Amino acid sequence: MPSRQREKLKLKAEVFKAMGHPIRLAIIEMLGKEEKCVCEIVGHVGTDTSNISKHLSILKSAGILTDRKKGLKVYYNLALPCALDFNRCVGNIILERLEAQRALMAS
Question: Which of 57, 59, 86, 95 sits a CA distance of 20 to 30 A from 13?
Answer without folding.
Answer: 95
